[in-house]
């Protein structure tokens, strides 16, 4: 925990603040998840898809999508009085990957959202977090009409280490999205060892 002196003899206990990335392919639901779970109005940097994206952006499976995140989404959620998560949704298109290193700086862990209709879109995110040794989980966003796969099949398809959690979610629903974040925190703390505290952003 972080502490700050206050007037009088009492101390004000400030919450631990951690940074979480929400990653995945184009149109997988990152903006939706941040918006569903954030307790404040989320910051979004969405732009309307333009002619410049023709032949560059693959819209197969997400033909109705008309906007794209060009920098990040940002939201926050508190767990009790002692933990606050800052959520940073990453851009899903290759041409915006130059911002990833900045967004990942100081992050505690990441959620990789997956769409079984476009499962290969997860590979760049998985590869990035594996190379940077940033703990992550995979959350399969259950789109209407998408084929349902066994979670073991998803883990095999993405060639994940056995200890990387894979779960189902509905990014539109707050409680489902909260479960994703809780699973990530549990995974991070398990990896760090029992009783070891989370590090603040920028540490």
TrEMBL record:
It holds the Pfam family ATP_bind_1. One of its GO terms (molecular function) is GTP binding. The keyword Protease does not apply. Keywords: GTP-binding, Hydrolase, Nucleotide-binding. InterPro entries: Gliding_Motility_GTPase, Gpn, P-loop_NTPase. The keyword Hydrolase applies. Belongs to the GPN-loop GTPase family. This is Signal recognition particle receptor subunit beta.
């Amino acid at each position: 925990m972080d502490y700050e002196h206050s007037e009088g003899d009492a101390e004000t206990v400030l919450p631990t603040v951690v940074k979480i990335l929400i990653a995945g392919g184009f149109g997988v639901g990152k903006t939706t998840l941040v918006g569903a779970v954030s307790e404040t109005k989320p910051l979004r940097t969405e732009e309307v898809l333009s002619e410049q994206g023709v032949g560059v952006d693959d819209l197969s499976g997400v033909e109705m999508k008309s906007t794209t995140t060009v920098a990040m989404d940002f939201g926050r959620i508190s767990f009790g009085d002692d933990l606050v998560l800052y959520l940073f949704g990453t851009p899903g298109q290759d041409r915006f990957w130059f911002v990833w290193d900045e967004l990942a700086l100081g992050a505690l862990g990441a959620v990789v959202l997956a769409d079984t209709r476009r499962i290969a879109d997860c590979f760049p995110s998985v590869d990035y977090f594996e190379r940077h040794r940033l703990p992550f989980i995979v959350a399969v966003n259950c789109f209407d009409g998408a084929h349902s796969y066994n979670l073991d099949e998803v883990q095999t398809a993405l060639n994940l280490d056995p200890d990387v959690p894979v779960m189902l979610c509905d990014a539109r629903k707050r409680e489902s999205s909260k479960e994703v974040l809780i699973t990530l925190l549990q995974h991070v703390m398990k990896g760090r060892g029992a009783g070891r505290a989370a590090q603040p952003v920028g540490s």
